[in-house]
Amino acid sequence: CGLCQRADCDPEVVGPLCHQNRLWVHENCLHHTSKLNQRGANNQGFYGFFFCDIWQEFKRAAQKVRPGGTCPHREMLHLPGTSVICCHRHCPQIFHFPCGKEQGCVSQFFGEYKSFCWKHRPVQRVQAVQHDQVLCLICQEEVPGHTCYNTLVHPACASGRFHRCIQGQALCSGLHHFRCPLCRDMRTFQGEMFRLGVKIPDRQAWHRVRAGSSAPAANEEQGGGGLSTQPGAGTPQPGGLWWRLLLCSSCGSHGTHWRCSNMEDDTESWECANCRDTGTSEGCSWSDG
Asked: Among the four residues 6, 121, 124, 170, which has the most C-beta atoms within 10 Å?
């Protein structure tokens, strides 16, 4: 990427790598470059950023950064492309987009697409959990009782605590289906996730896009937050597909991870154990409770 100077980044973090002749750049690096303006329509250039403007930004970002501005990623300090500037007034911090994410910076994907350094990022003020152990509903790993950069809390659902792996669920579900996996709230949940830097693309759910369907899923409008609890083995696939949730196609009140049900990449539906008794299913039998 001509901005972050990296090729080892998770696509869930930086987005797809766009290229045109000798021009290579990540989508999210483009959107959060502080001095680059989106002057075209979405189908022009890269997401509305003209190629000539991107080249000009490459040249500008390659110049010496302003005094006090250094990328937090030590290995990247002397490389060009540090083009993301903290929006806090008088803050000198400037960094590469993926380096900032690794160091706890927050870049928002709505409105003005603001970015904040690790000192001035948005924080949550919620009551600490008193339980002995809380598990992330996505990755099933333990979540700290206190809030921090890697712990996100749904303010309207005290038990809804997640790691930043919720980003994979947001990309999979899309704006029209992304909601709290526990209480199923959408409006408050999405607003808080947007504020904390979670990218929620304005499109249908991932499996519906692949299936070529644009109709909303009726069964996703109801039901509880039942999850698969069988731990998966191995290393997650690129993009976090193994830990994305798929709701029961019959009742919508139970869910499973792709990995837990050993699903193929092209699997588009799944049934829980309760509904399987009255039909056929290739899924697993985990359910809530």
From this structure: 170
Distances (CA, A) of 257 to 90, 168, 236, 247: 44, 12, 11, 9
Phi first, then psi: give them for residue 175, nearest 5 degrees.
-60, -30
How far does the chain reach from its first CA to its final CA, in angstroms? Answer: 46
CB 71 within 8 A of CB 153: no
Give the up-direction half-sphere exposure of residue 178: CA atoms within 13 A in the CB hemisphere: 27
Question: Could you tell me where the beta strands, DSSP code E, fall in the chain?
Answer: 17-20, 23-26, 84-85, 94-95, 106-107, 115-116, 134-135, 142-143, 152-153, 161-162, 245-247, 255-257
Give the span between the Cα atoms of 22 and 2, in whole angstroms.
Answer: 10
Question: From the first residue on, what is the mean pLDDT of each consecutive set of 10 residues in the chain (289 residues)?
Answer: 86 90 90 86 85 87 56 51 85 89 93 93 80 79 85 84 90 90 90 95 66 38 35 40 65 67 69 68 38
pTM: 0.68
Beta pairing class for 84-85 and 94-95:
antiparallel
CATH of domain 11-116: 3.30.40.10
